[in-house]
Structure formats: structure tokens, C-alpha cells
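Researcher: Please predict.
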Amino acid sequence: MSEGEQAEALVGRIIGRSIWLYASNITNQLSGLVYWMILSSIAGTKIVGLTSVCIGLALLLGATAGLGTITGLQRYLGIAFSHKNNREASEYFWSTFIIIGSIYGGVIVILIALASNNISVGAITPQILYISSILLATYLLYYTQILLISKLETTKVLISTIAANTVKFLVGITLTLYLKTWIGAALGFIAYYIVLGAIGLYYLFSIGIYFHVNFHRSIVVIKAGLANWVPTIIALSGQWLGVIALFNFTNPSLTGSYYIASTIVLAILSLTNSIYNLTLPVLSGLSDQRKRISFLVLKITLALTVPLFILLFVYPGELLLLLNINDPEISTIMRLLVIGSIITIISSNISILTYAYGKYNETLTIGVSQNLPRVILYYILTPIMGGIGAALSYLTGSVSGLVVSLFISYFIRYYIGTITVLEIIAIPSIIALPILFFKIPLLVGSIIILGLSYMLYIKMNILNMNEIASLISELPYSNKIIPTLYKIKNSISRDKEGKY
């Protein structure tokens, strides 16, 4: 097998396993949308705004207390699993879990002390602080999923997610109907993390990750994590401070609408995150071909997501109407978030490769350049422009991060195929222009944008059939699907690529 075929096979394994991880993420996103639809119909979008602020606060504090160890663990667990060393992986995981758990405990005590003394933080009330402290305690259990992801046990992640979301619905909706407040919705999320962690712990022991402690391992993980700590905090701030800023400067109802719009965009972006979450431990465990594999991942990720993003750009209002949101400003917000998300895919790809090389300062630079402008602009533009100001802040940070990441890419000699990237973005964008101009209905426009885009990707050899075959080789019935795809390729292209 040639180096190119080896790279394609490895990327196929990453993408194939990431499909299950994406199924997990999309389960979270779609179930979240349904969850909010039901709850907002019970108590209005205000309940979404209050709960989302509580969740955002807990996640921001969790990222701060976590010292970047989620990313650090992915790197070192990837190395341990590439050597098939479960004992080493156990020591990395449990030692880090104990230390981070202790730090979480300190933050939780501070939150409870503030709430007990009836101290508010801006518009964040003691009640929100109380619930956030409980959410933070249960969020620590998410670390079990990081180990499963690093071992590429993505089907187990999906099972955990489905079970946890089922319990979230039962608990959250029942308690909201009973309590008639947002606290019921928040308790649904607390139940979600408890179930996720319980199932995750069961799977850890089932795959041989028993309790072993070596605090030297945790120091290594924390050292690696600190390089990604500030970017992680700022990245989550870039995501959640938009929600929190809207809550402070506007009202819970607009906050809830913005949160739902951003959740729809994140549902597509989560496909990228699923792939990149698996790419990092794999790249970390390799000694060569990292750049080749990284670009293949970027190319395939863009090809999978950009047509979906363009579809969302063309039909934001129609999709929001399905969620009973009829606000022209939210449509503009969604379009700005779409542009920023496409840009973010490229800079994140460079950041992951840089991190896999152990170039922590460069990774830090990319993260700060992308997310610090967002954080600053949220508190400048949101009071003036509301939700559009928050979305513009997100977009500005994406552009800033891309510029810096391209400079770093040049210095580490990672030359992204600019023409290929531009073709991937341009094809669905050009297809969408007449659809947008002539106001073609959603169903017809969706078929044209998605179908024609993917056909042209194959016809122009942006995606070749060997890559596609590698991508789906991990899926059920791939032995029947792959020959069919080759027949379709041969029917739309003069240039036969050969028989399967």
C-alpha cells in the first residue's frame, strides 16, 4: 500500500468513526431543539434564555477549572492507545480526573458561597449560581466521554448520548410542567450529565481502563493542556458570552431566540468537531504523514459541511419558522454565524495539526487571535446592535483567527491547497445565487444545492472515489454501497476511475 493509500485509509477510519460521534452530537443538537420547542411552548422563550445562561456559565467555569486538560488528555491518550497501553491510558485519565475534580470542587464552593449570601453577578441571580454549581459538578463526568473518543469507541459514545438525552427529556419536561419555571429545564441537563457519566464509567471498566494513579502523568497532561487552556476559555467565551451579553443587555426572550439560532448553526459545525476530536489523538500518535492526513481531513470536512451551511444561509427564515421563530433579525444573525463557522473550520484544522506537533505557543496564538476579539466585541457591539452585534463579533473573531492561523501554517510548512478549498466553497455558493434570487421553495432548493454540489465535487475530482470508499468503509453495508457509488460516478463522469 502506497503512502497516499495509507493516508486515505487512516482518514477513512477517522471519518468513519467520526460519523458515530457526529450521530452523537447531532442527537444532542436535534434533541436540544425539540427540547426547547416543547419547553418554550410550555413557558415561552424566556425559559430558554434563563436556562441557556445557566448552562453557559457552568461550561465557562468548567473550562476555566479544567486547565485545558480535555485537549491534553486527547493528545496523550491518543499516544497511549496507539501503543496499545491501557495501563498508561488509565494513569493519564484517573490522575488528571482526580486533580481537576478537586479544582472543580473549589469553584463549586465559591458559587454556593455567593448564592448563600444572596450575591448577584450582573443579571445572574443567586438562583442561577446555585443551579450552575450543580451543573458544574455533573459536567465533570463528561471526562469519561473524552477517553472513549480518544480510543475511537464512538459507538459507545452514541449509546451514552441517546440514553442521557432520553432521561433529560423525561426529567426536564416533567419537572417543568410541575414547577412551571426554568429550573425544571436545567435539572433535565443535570440528569443528562449524570447518566452520561454513569454509562461512561461502565464502559471505561469494560474496555480495561481500571483505576491507576500516577500524578506525574497528570502533570504532563496539564502542561500540555495549559497551551490550549486560554484558547479554550476564550473559545467558550466566544460561544457563550454572546448569550450572556444578550441576557445582560436585552431580555431573556431574545436571548432564547439567539441561542436557538446558534444551536442550528452548531448542529452543522458539530460534524467538524466530531471529525477533529478524532483527528487530534490520531495525529498525535503518528510519526509521519501528519500534514497529508490533516489536509485530507480538511478537504473532506469542508466538502461535507459547506453545502449544508450554504443551504442554511439561503433559507434561515424558513428553518426558523419551523421552530416558531419569526424575527428578521434572527435570520441575519444566522447568516453571519454561518460565514464565521465556515472560516473557523479552516483555522481549527491548522490549530489541531499545530497542537499534534507539540507546538503549544503557536496553538495558543491561534486560539487567542480567534476568540479574544469575539469576547471584547461582545461587550462593545451587543449593547448597540443586539443580536446582530453578537453575531458580528463572532464573525470578526473567525476572520482574525484565520489570518493568524494561515501565517502559522506557512511557518510550519503546512501548505493548504487554496484552490481546492476555494472550489469547495465556491461551488455551492454559485449554485445558491439563482435559488436565492428567484426565491425557489425550500424543498426544491435543498435538493438542487446539496445534490448538484456533491455531484460536482465528484465530477471535478475534488472528492475522488477512493477517498469516498475509505470514508464509508466503516459503515454498515459498505460492501454494497461502495460498488453502487462507483457506478454512479461512472455515469456522471467521462473519466472512468476504474472498477471496484
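Model: Residues 495-500 have pLDDT under 50 and may be disordered.
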